[in-house]
Design a protein that fits this description.
Layout (H helix, E strand, L loop, with lengths): L2 H9 L6 H13 L4 H14 L3 H12 L16 E5 L8 H9 L5 E5 L9 H5 L11 H11 L1 E5 L6 H12 L6 H12 L6 E8 L8 H17 L3 E8 L7 E2 L1 H12 L5 H17 L6 H14 L1 H12 L5 H4 L9 E6 L4 E6 L1 H13 L13 E4 L6 E2 L4 E7 L5 H10 L1 E4 L9 E5 L1
Parallel strand pairs: 1-4, 2-3, 4-5
Antiparallel strand pairs: 5-13, 6-9, 7-11, 8-10, 8-12, 9-11
Helix pairs in contact: 1-3, 2-4, 4-9, 4-10, 5-12, 5-14, 9-10, 12-13, 16-17
Length: 435
Amino acid sequence: MIPYELIFKKRNGGRLTPDEIRFLVDSYTRGGLPDYQMSAFLMAVYFRGMDKTETAALTQSMMDSGESLDLRGRFKVRTADKHSTGGVGDKVSLPLAPAVAAFGVPVPMMSGRGLGHTGGTLDKLESIPGFRTRLTKEEFLGVLDRVGCAIIGQTDRIAPADKKMYSLRDVTATVDCIPLIAASILSKKLAAGPESLVLDVKTGDGAFMREMADSKRLAVEMLGICREAGREAVAFITDMDQPLGLAVGNALEIRETIDCLSGAGPADLRELVVVFGGEMLRLAGKTKSAADGRKAIAAALSDGRAKRKFAEMVEAQGGDARVIGQSGGLPASKYVEAVKSPRTGTIQKLAARDVGVASLMLGAGRTRSEDVIDPAAGILLAKKVGDRVKKGETLAYLYANDASRLPPARERYLGALKIGAGQPKKRKLIWQILK
């Protein structure tokens, strides 16, 4: 095959065969295809798109470029996982994985790090002293066998084609292309071996896809890839117009996770854990319906089973599980500032993206992959959209270890707010369910 001919074909709107796509991906991964030709191919895809067969072939080729797990037949029930497209305060995976595993459903979860205004599951877990997110394949399987759930990061051996291709997309303005986004996400996610998958596609101010139409297109694309790969999946389009929960920042979100696992915590976080967990139990064949699954997950959060399973996972991955049963042990900030309301009224808006950026400015995030995160930094919200506030009342608490970070973060946080008269229109937490 000649790369020029394949690029020419796609540029002119042609459909590539799975073998042609595999040839391009394999050649690029091995170094036989230069960056400039892969860049041209990515740009052709950006403008011409891909049909579902092409996108599935691209995903499979990227997944096959490295190491992957096949968990079929390893366990008595079907394995289940969940993926989120990311947001602000989105710590759902942390209580969800142990809640589902508490019912004997293995959850092999491969997660990512935060970049920009969105947080990362791995960074949150690593705020627990000793917690290891980099496990070998054998260690990952061992934790999965013993505990029933494990959360790890992508290794250099998993979907190396995606890593190389994403670096090019980042500098060639081809990141926001739905077939490329879907293939990138699922080439890594499916490599961890889940047999069924719940997809959480965020929409709104703090989401990667801010418009509902784009979020739905991405959800449909990913569902198609899962079907082509023989994995049963359900997609939820959920709100990310304001932060999820009250905590934004790594150790702060671990504390909120422990609250959720103790049968408390914010209602929106608990709702998503219960709904997604119920669907995962159904997909795994553990319950007859999602409704039965939701009741089971709610019970596991209330009676301590999910919390005990989380402690088992933390300990199995090298973390100090004592932080789960006590208030101390997690990183704490030197400085805590209460932000007061400048006026009396009702919170009309709390822009998720600006809150995420404010948390980043405090040290909780990174703008470059090599940046070092302060695990104790972040924001704890006292008020959200629809809440009534009085002038001088506390809106939020800012946490930092560098006092000079507080003023610009405070200004950014206040810029996220709109306080006015009347009750704002209530937004749905779950906008749509796609199967």
